[in-house]
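Troubleshooting entry. Yesterday's outputs looked truncated, so today I'm pasting the complete records for two proteins to confirm everything comes through intact. If either block looks cut off, that's the bug. Protein one:
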Amino acid sequence: MENIKGVLVPTDFSPTAWKAVMTGIRLAKGSNSPLTLMHITPYTSDSQYVEEIDTKLRNISENLSGLYSLNVKSVIGYGDRLEAITNFIREAGAEIIVMGLNGTGSNEIGSMTGEMLRHLECPVVVVPAMENSSIPA
């Protein structure tokens, strides 16, 4: 696989999101690209929540970087999900988005994934739900 600018995995820390992270790792390693984990929150004034999410994302990124010898970054997006992801793609140059089918564990496409498929112009890899997976802290 040729080098791509980057792989972005939006995460809500659900089991399906963890499966998307693992798929993102394979794509990033195969293309020698950085992997970015992104959590999007509408909360900009709750500094404790943002600090907890930032710490969680950084810990996961550092663990994955070490385990897979991969450049893993983390970022928090704020406000509208589509806008946050679109801005990240424009600014950081991610070329592939990897998302879980949904965050609930059902086999129906989630609202965020559906929105991304309808509006993003870059490839979106959708990973089906998976039981018994969780993102390590």
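Protein two, checking that the full record survives here as well:
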Amino acid sequence: MTQKRPDPVAAADVEARALALSLMQAHHAALAWSDAETQTPGISRIAFGLDSLGVPMALISGLAPHTAALRANPACALMLGEPGEKGDPLTHPRLMIRARASFIAPDDPNRPALRAHWLKGHPKATLYIDLPDFAFVRLEPLSALLNGGFGKAFRFSADDLRP
């Protein structure tokens, strides 16, 4: 009889939640998506931020391949966290968020407030934020996994990621 191994991923605790929320303060992320035509995976570096309620969001160009991909299939994932200057990159914390993308319409009455909020954290975006091909995308978390370093893995629900 095969003995079942214990799950190495623990439920999020207060300390893990604090670390995840700190990683979510990043200004960029890696975005994983599925190509609309080939269904093959792709990864893009995107500008990343949180809206005023703490929901992840991005400002993306309609010219980027991930825009068409997210419009066809809103399922995506984000990777947040950078390796430190020293040591093994795999020992530094990182957060993978499974999400669902939803585009904010250009005429959405909340867009001016989103725009102002975005520019506080991304002031250089003033160069392109109003170009017609750029759109805000809300990346609503579904679940997440935090690797907090060697032997420190945690599972999160969407609610665990709310401030």
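Both blocks look complete. Sanity check on protein two: The first helix runs from residue 14 to 23.
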